[in-house]
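Support request, priority: normal
Reporter: lab tech (M.K.)
Component: structure prediction queue

Hi team, I submitted a job for Sema domain-containing protein from Ailuropoda melanoleuca yesterday, and the status page still shows it as pending. I've pasted the exact input below so you can check whether something in the sequence is tripping the parser. The sequence length should be 619 residues. Please let me know if I need to resubmit or if it's stuck on your end.
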Amino acid sequence: MGSSTLLPRQPPAPSPKRSFVTFRGEPAEGFNHLVVDERTGHIYLGAVNRIYKLSSDLKVLVTHQTGPDEDNPKCYPPRIVQTCNEPLTTTNNVNKMLLIDYKENRLIACGSLYQGICKLLRLEDLFKLGEPFHKKEHYLSGVNESGSVFGVIVSYSNLDDKLFIATAVDGKPEYFPTISSRKLTKNSEADGMFAYVFHDEFVASMIKIPSDTFTVIPDFDIYYVYGFSSGNFVYFLTLQPEMVSPPGSTTKEQVYTSKLVRLCKEDTAFNSYVEVPIGCERSGVEYRLLQAAYLSKAGAVLARTLGVRPEDDLLFTVFSKGQKRKMKSLDESALCIFILKQINDRIKERLQSCYRGEGTLDLAWLKVKDIPCSSAGGVLAVILAREFEPLGPSQSQLVRCHRAESPPRPPDTSGVSGDRFAALPREPGEAAGGRTQAELKPPFHGDDGAFQSASLSTEWEQFPLVGVEATFRPIPEDSSVEPTFMGVDPVLSGVMVMMDNLSYQDGAQKGLELLTIDDNFCGLDMNAPLGVSEMVRGIPVFTEDRDRMTSVIAYVYKNHSLAFVGTKSGKLKKPSGIRGGKQMEESAGPAGVADRAKLRSLDEETVGVVGAQKLLEVE
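Reply from support: The job had stalled in the queue. We restarted it manually and it finished. Here are the results:
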């Protein structure tokens, strides 16, 4: 009979260190931005004086040189447009923004030379398709910091795309809006490339920092960390200074606050601009300085934990401890999750309260002084049609006018099925606020039951109109509406509307409804732009005390939501459990930008291979 000997259990052999495929540029180069073509896996790398196209295994396919060149940051317009009297020196071109325009198969590469002009490069071979530089709209940013510009492309199937640009202005607000929406024309050499989506003498698709702001905070600027689109909105995550009074003190000190900015994609006047402070807290420690962010989905497993749907958007963010100085972030940092719907719900609550006349606009940097919210009262939402195509919410914004007495109405209006209001266009040269005739033609039932029409005229103070007509949905029978003058966006098209306390029976007509503020509300020209005062706090899932986290990426694999973070020392880490805890898995660092491009999962059996499209944001 055989015998056996029980051997002591051997400890598992240590895991071999994983090797990384690397790419290194010229010694003097710094890598600034990285994007990956999701269709091909090709990597585009924005560096100092160069743009690289790499294969998925980091082989150089094409190189495009962008600098250096003779320049001076004080030359505005740049010397390539007109002679500059400032001394010129050989200046590096730091890549500040890198975006893939999928619809037109081109790369948008913006640099620091010549006040931030951009090149449009063909994806296949980086051939220059265009480089607009002769208009002020072509100068996107004069700041030399590589991380000072962020762009989000909004794409349309049958129209030209648009580009939302957000940038620090470096004390030059007269030259650069801090946020704007630009045209992305199909033709890369078109004269309208990067022109504002809308611009006239009164309104434009932009927001500038007022000069008065710099008298309060001399070094004020807005630093954009991340941007994305979701649903009907475009979002930017920012750091910005503000003056606050410490508890128990009457003096103010400057601190930096992290804020999320939201805009409607279709808002040409930026009346939908809202910003809300964000932060994170764990065990009594405040993490307030945003370092990085990444948008991902919840996935089925994490969705159950958070009480959301698997397809809901989550923001994975990295904050560092402290709030006093932006450039002196402490090493203590936290990885936190925000549920985007909760942020939107907070914004909706704030919009609703402000339109009830509660509180102030809470946007000190833009308004300088507190401005009270205005009650919408009996404001009605007017939806117009141009050539039978409904205008978007932001294209039919209300312009509140003064109140007036109702004009005489026919004595019997109980059978009104709908009102048709017509406004005459401005005469050439007439002032925008001039008086003009408006005609009210309500169809109604006569004694014989047939529809008749009564014409009434009165003079209404109005904004410039284009003479369109609109049919409105009657107000419900039990509704009481104060007599109010209203108009719509004076630039596109519009009518002046005066309503009084009439009862209507037919609700089939479309176009007029009581103002409601729902999930897709895009603002009016009142109570805008708007700030939210109460901070939205994220859910902390991991903290690091020594090696500050500086970048983050997340994605869903087999219903699990996975996150990776990059650190100050160049290491790459993966939380072992997204629900929290201190345990982390760590790569054999340091891992550079190109290392991350080819990084394989730290636990392939559980996680799978991280493809080129799953890159960490550049530190």
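The two ends are 67 Å apart (CA to CA). The mean pLDDT is 73. Let us know if anything else looks off. Ticket resolved.
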